[in-house]
Design goal:
Layout (H helix, E strand, L loop, with lengths): L5 E7 L6 H11 L6 E6 L13 H11 L6 E3 L2 H5 L5 H8 L5 E7 L12 H7 L1 E5 L11 E3 L7 H6 L11 H11 L2
Parallel strand pairs: 1-2, 1-4, 2-3, 4-5, 5-6
């Protein structure tokens, strides 16, 4: 922990984690103003009623997938709360450890962003980095992150494709979701 570090917070359900997530992390690490990427899986997404894989299983997968990455940390703050956690709470927790936070979201979240809990307060505490998704136009007021894989976890759960899963855990993730689709 270094209170002078600037981090990119990358939160989400990661249900399942896929190569698009890996590519976002790689793109964030290439930004010269980011010291570290903090990946924070949700216990349960505030806009969803359930997860397909348990929070602890998704956390385990992420720890394995990113264990060899330099300057990447998997944070279990939200999972340990054992409930839905608004992003503002995670940001306030991280601001006790780091000086500056870039919040990474997919462009598909732009439509609902103003509905996020305490959005006005959140936007004063972070700078947003928006990853391109589905050819959605990103307003000029946001930093843009170009990524090559536009993968939806929702679609991937419906039609699991081992080639879209991180190599380090592809078999286990594939078998898990293949089994839940029966």
């Amino acid at each position: 922990m270094d209170k002078t570090q600037t981090i990119a917070l990358f939160g989400g359900s990661f249900d399942p984690p896929h190569i698009g997530h890996e590519n976002i992390v790689k793109a964030l690490l290439s930004l010269n103003y980011i010291d570290k990427v903090v990946i924070m899986p949700t216990f349960l997404n505030p806009f969803k009623s359930n997860s397909h894989a348990s929070a602890n299983l998704r956390l385990k997968w992420l720890k394995t997938i990113f264990k060899e990455y330099k300057n990447v940390q998997i944070d279990d703050f939200e999972v340990k709360q054992n409930k839905k956690v608004p992003t503002i709470e995670s940001v306030e927790y991280l601001l006790t450890k780091y000086s500056n936070i870039y919040l990474t979201i997919g462009a598909d979240n732009l439509m609902s962003l103003k509905k996020w809990y305490k959005y006005d307060k959140l936007q004063k505490k972070v700078s947003f980095i928006v990853a391109h998704r589905n050819n959605i136009k990103i307003p000029e007021s946001f930093l843009k992150l170009e990524i090559k894989d536009d993968i939806s976890s929702t679609q991937l759960r419906k039609n699991i494709d081992i080639l879209k899963l991180p190599k380090s855990y592809s078999n286990e993730i594939y078998n898990y979701y293949k089994g839940t689709n029966q």
